[in-house]
## 1
Amino acid sequence: MDIATAAGVVTAIALILASIVIGGGKMGAFVDPPSVMVVVGGGIAATLVAFPLKNFLSVFSVGLKVLFYKSASIPEIIDQIVSLAETARRDGLLALEGRMSEIENEFVALGVQMAVDGARPEVIEDVLRTEVDGVATRHRDGKALFDTLGRYAPAFGMIGTLMGLIIMLGDMSDPSKIGAGMAVALLTTLYGAIMANVICLPFADKLGYTNKQELLVMEIVIRGIMAIQQGENPKVIRQKLTTFVPPKQRGSEEQAA
């Protein structure tokens, strides 16, 4: 599980609840099922209009990916590629066939398998970059889903508030109920703001970040596979790939090598 995502959501909700309690508010006054229905249901309905059903249904798996995403370790990927390069340089490309079972990263395995099969370099790079484009497209669609939910939830919160005000102003026979009616009307705006700023938009931003990380790892893999296929020196390959590692982390990388 991505601890940062879970901790961020839990902390935000806890701070809101604590503020209500410390401010002397009654928790029951902040619960209104019709308001939840307008904001959550309305946001989902608007997103359904904006996306095909197949794409919308993926929102659940995309959400789980945000919570349980574990980024690949760039130093470990570089170490594995350099190790494969050493084997290829010493025993030939076909020797990598015997190491396929050690490779857990599917993208690395795809590139190595194509190299072992004797595919031409331009074909290997074309296939790998097509795979990168496919991953980037899927990630972009997933992020767009949460961006859309985050954009429409506050809008439906405002719609709910206006509906509440219209209902309240339509019946002014009992002035003592105006305050309570106004409070309920404002709840939808609050729900919309929470849904957008605690869940949807942060999830979209996290998806954008994980997309960049995953594409960076794939770029490193492509450069590494192409270098192995061309028979480059493993030390040179490590130097090339280490340029993708932030300068502050390169010292420990070189020591490890």
## 2
Amino acid sequence: MIGRLKKLISDLFSSTEQDDISIGLYGPPNAGKSTLANQISMDLTGEEMSNVSEVPHETRAVEKKEQVTLETDDDRTIDMNLLDMPGISTNVDFQDFTEHGLEEEESKDRAKEATKGIVEAIKYLDDVDACLVVFDSTEDPYTQVNVTIIGNLEAKDIPILILANKTDLEDADPSRVRDAFPQHPVLEVSAKEGENIDKLYEEIIERLS
């Protein structure tokens, strides 16, 4: 798996001559994209970049953190632009929010914002150089939403690294993510606990610097 991951990142970035690389974090709602974005941003800049909530579609507009610099002890440096995308969904129902205690009017507004955010995230596919696709490894990954996300990225020939997130949870089963998308490399992480994030940094810095 590590070999495939190294090849992916090597292929991904070897042909990129620009100084900054735009990396989009894609995935369904509540997969942990914003938690991962915050983990990376806190590690590398000391600041969080996104709000996190149990309510779906907390991120309803693209959150950006530019000039995120990753440095190594041997002075290799990479500048990246992180783009935390709204969760992709094939359907946004305001009742998804009322179930979490929001009032109906607020829920309807939130549903409109979430739909607008999904459109914005899809438009950004023309501007990203690579994508980290975040899936919740406690849930069945072979869903219409996830297949749609992967299919859109493949159609645009955007390099993909899948992250099987939430490995700190008892029900986590990253093997299901691998089985669902065997054509892509999968890295197991816990964005919340920071588990295996160093491995992600190591692979990126090795291939980018």
## 3
Amino acid sequence: MNDVYVVGAGQTDYGSFPRESYRSLFKEAVDTAVDSVDAEFDRESVDEAYVGTLGVGGRQLGLPGPAVTEFAGLNGTATTRVENACAASGVALRQAVLAVRAGVADVALAGGFEVMNDVSSERTGEWLGVSGETEWERMAGTTFSGVYAQMADAHMAEHGTTREHLSRVAVKNHANGAKNPHAQLGFETTLADAMNAPAVADPLNLFDCCPTSDGASAVLVASRDAAEELTDNPIRIAGAGQSSGRVGLFQRPTLTEIPATQRAAEQAYDEADIGPEDVEFAEVHDCFSIAELLAYEDLGFCERGEGGPYVASGATEPDGERPVNLSGGLKAKGHPIGATGGGQVVEVFKQLRGEAGDRQVSGLSRGLTHNVGGSGGAVAVHVFEEGWA
């Protein structure tokens, strides 16, 4: 099996950009990824491209992949659109990894885009709803925040998780996002403000919820031979895991676990020959604050039910034992659905190369990304390590 390396990664700012199109955003992300490659990079060397998008607003539901790769200077490149809701570009990355491992491609591009702020909030809510179970949840009136509110309520009842535990996720990620120039909500907040924000779907309030975002991301991966021509500072993808789960909450035996995360993580850990205790830092899918606490537990960073005390202990702060969401996460950096998984890789790429600016944590050599579709219907987990194998 061929080793796979990240040789370049880039993203746009996340936010609301009425003067940009989905094509221009994706091109900016690809341009930034190409610029990040240490050696001169020829776009014609890209053999395969995998582009994630949900298609919010329905502007280009057919052939969005070729539409953006052509605009980004990759005309003629074999391009595949990947749709796995919010996990789209995390899964796109795994497809690129598999193509290089199989010898189908020497160089592949994975990324994604989404434009979410050029339609009304009501329509955005409808598009977010299609990522959940349609027949028995969305059509019955359940919103996406309502789904995660049920998970938070169950976690509180079963494990004693508190309002303060949820808010500490928001405070930490906003503090990190305030140091990220790409962040949509790049400001800090206090614990008091986070705890007393207006309710959205009880027990979740405004500071428990990520924003809707426009943005794009792009990651360039290469075989060992190709990577040696492109960089002296490689980042190896040591493990790539993916799993699916039941789309509807009512179909699951528990509301307080995401089994697809557990299976995807086990696969990624096995490939990397590590355990969760070896992960030094992580970018996890915190679409809602409860999602980050569930990720701690499902990824094995703490015991079941201990996600709340774990964040309260400071373990996931930048100076803690395992920093989580140094980018600000979905909560502060933003969540352009199809781009989110690729954007997580951008942060890990920068941290491992010592290029993360004011939010750089020194001495990191192994990181993880965790990208969730819906409330757990699809999950991609990747492990990254500094240096050659």
